[in-house]
Amino acid sequence: MKKTYGYNNPVEVEFKGLENVNEIFEKLPSKYAKKPILATLRKGARIFVRDLRSVTPRKTGNTRKAIGIKNGKGISISVGFRTTGSYFPAWSKAYWMNYGTLSNRDGSHHFIKARKPGTQSWRGGIRPLVFVESSWNRTQSQVDKTIMAELQNETVKFLDKYAVK
Predict the structure, then answer these.
(1) Distance (Å, whole) CA 67 – CA 47
(2) Cα(126)–Cα(103) distance, integer angstroms
(3) pTM of the model
(4) In terms of C-beta density within 10 A (0-12 exposed, 13-18 middle, 19 or more buried), how is residue 6 classed?
(5) Under a CB-based contact definition with an 8 Å cutoff, are residues 153 and 161 in contact?
(6) In terms of C-beta density within 10 A (0-12 exposed, 13-18 middle, 19 or more buried), how is residue 91 classed?
(7) What integer pLDDT is reported at residue 138 of this predicted model?
(8) How far apart are CA 88 and CA 33, in angstroms?
(9) What's the CA gap between 30 and 27, in Å, rounded?
(10) How far apart are CA 117 and CA 23, in angstroms?
(11) DSSP 73
(12) pLDDT per residue over 118-162, tens digit each?
């Protein structure tokens, strides 16, 4: 089994030794393959979510409630602070606490918008705590191991269930 996994990289899986895998996937609609893969990704993501909730500063208010896992389009999930509905203020607080504001912005983070000209001379602001990155760095290897182990288990279950006889 081969994997490619990282911050912006999709998971790539290569099967070897399973002769009828292509035949199974060709005969089934793609929605059947989606369930076990999403279940696998969710199991791995729960490790990161648990750690992120534990390190989120209390002074960010109720941002722990905004941390979650959401299914994306296709075979993908989104993990972290949700930005929809009543969670947007919580996401903003978490973003500011993680990356800082005004002259205290984190230099290693790429901000989409630069500071506005009216605030260029302002000093101070929220100091960056970079707790999201530290949580990811702490849990990434465990998440990788869980995803790979669960992917193998779910694949075997899937193949046993839909095997071409």
Answers:
(1) 12
(2) 9
(3) 0.70
(4) exposed
(5) no
(6) middle
(7) 93
(8) 33
(9) 9
(10) 60
(11) S
(12) 888 888 888 888 888 899 999 999 988 898 888 888 777 777 776
